[in-house]
Amino acid sequence: MSKSIAFEKIEKTEEFQDLKRRKYRFIFTVPVLFLIYYLLFIVMSAYAKPLMSSIVFGNFTFGYLFGISYYVVIWALAFIYVFKAKSYDRQVDDIIAKYGPKEEQEKGA
Fold first, then answer.
1. Could you count the other beta carbons within 10 Å of the beta carbon of residue 70?
2. Which of 21, 42, 78, 91 is 20 to 30 A from residue 31's alpha carbon, by CA?
3. pLDDT value of position 11
C-alpha cells in the first residue's frame, strides 16, 4: 500500500482545473488593477494639476493623499491575498482528501 498522492490524476480532475482557473484569474487581475491605480496617479499628475494641487485640509493636497493611499491599498491587497490564499489552500486540501491516498488504500483492500 502506497501512501503517495497521484498528483497527475488530481491535475486532470475538473475540481482542480476550476480551482486553478479561479486562482490564476485572481492572481493576475489584482496586479493589473493595482497597475492601473498606480498609472492613474501619473496621468492625474500630468493632466489634472488643478485637482492634484487642490488643498483637502491643512497643507495636504489631493495629490499627497492620493499618494499616501497607495500604502492603504497595498496593505488591503496583502490582507485580501492572505484571505484568498487560505481559501485556496482549504480547497486544495479537500481535493487531496478526495483523490488522495485514502482512495488508493480502499482499492488495495
1. 13
2. 91
3. 84
